[in-house]
Design goal:
single chain; 276 residues; alpha+beta; Fructose-1,6-Bisphosphatase, Chain A, domain 1; D-Maltodextrin-Binding Protein, domain 2; 2 domains; 7-stranded mixed β-sheet; 14 strands; 32% helix
């Protein structure tokens, strides 16, 4: 399994900054109608910033990590077979060039860029970059999770303290679940103090890893949304697993992922939701 040293981590961050400065920031709040397109649904968008940032970052990572398999969200959108390479790749880079594209396209600052480095089927480094503020969340397996300010100042991250279910704040994207599951979930969300959805994994994982929110239930398992965030959350002390109890792996494509402050909290949230 490859080791991500300090120099390599700094290089990955530099690559993400470069892609943001070249392709994302110049287009923020300057998007024209012909630069936004729908993918799978009217609110599942892609912009020229997504495509350009993924291209630039892919090129930089290919130079930095020789032989790396690139798994980019937009590339997979064009060729779904690319995703199948992740499970057996010796070294892979999973890219979400603009996570929160709906926000980005509508001038909202709630977006970020996500990069996961996967080796032997496990995420060994996770990075989330927030281009507007210039800061990062980063984690390496076994090295803790950190917030790095734009000037490089590090702060160790910790998830929320365990609390009773009735005091928990969490993310549940109710609208994304199948109608039968929506009907089961809807009355159960009232068991928590507050639930919401931000339509942006980069910011939802930030809220989990900084302790601002307690839990998150996800409808889908796209690796560009979760491979980095699950590692950051775990290194901040959290516990995440598929609702069946199975450990999360980046190559998974089915199941509902639940993240919580610890194993006991995870069980309490799952029992409150009772979703298979």
């Amino acid at each position: 399994m490859k080791v991500i040293g300090d120099d390599l981590l700094a290089g990955l961050m530099a690559d993400m900054r470069h892609a943001a400065e070249a392709e994302i920031l110049p287009r923020f709040r300057a998007i024209t109608a012909d630069a936004v397109r729908a993918k799978t649904a009217l609110d599942d968008l892609v912009t020229d910033a997504d495509i350009g940032a993924e291209r630039v970052l892919s090129e930089r990572l290919g130079e930095r990590l020789r032989g790396v398999t690139i798994i980019g969200e937009e590339a997979v959108s064009g060729d779904a077979s690319i995703l199948s390479r992740l499970e057996k790749a010796e070294l892979a880079a999973v890219i979400d060039p603009v996570d929160g594209t709906w926000h980005f396209a509508h001038g909202s600052p709630m977006f970020g860029s996500i990069l996961a480095i996967v080796s032997g089927g496990e995420t060994i480094a996770g990075l989330i970059h927030y281009p507007l503020s210039g800061d990062f969340l980063v984690a390496r397996r076994g090295g803790g999770a950190w917030h790095l300010a734009a000037d490089g100042t590090p702060t160790r991250l910790s998830v929320a303290a365990p609390t009773p279910v009735g005091e928990m704040h969490g993310f549940i994207p109710l609208h994304m679940f199948a109608p039968d599951l929506q009907a089961k979930l809807a009355p159960r969300v009232t068991r928590f103090h507050r639930t919401t959805t931000w339509r942006c994994s980069a910011w939802e994982y930030r809220m989990l890893a900084t302790g601002a929110m307690s839990f998150c239930l996800n409808e889908g398992l796209k690796p560009w949304d979760h491979a980095a965030g699950v590692l950051i959350h775990a290194e901040a002390g959290g516990h995440a697993a598929i609702m069946s109890g199975e450990a999360y792996q980046p190559a998974m494509t089915t199941g509902h992922l639940l993240a919580a402050p610890d194993a006991a909290s995870w069980m309490a949230v799952r029992d409150a939701l009772l979703v298979a």
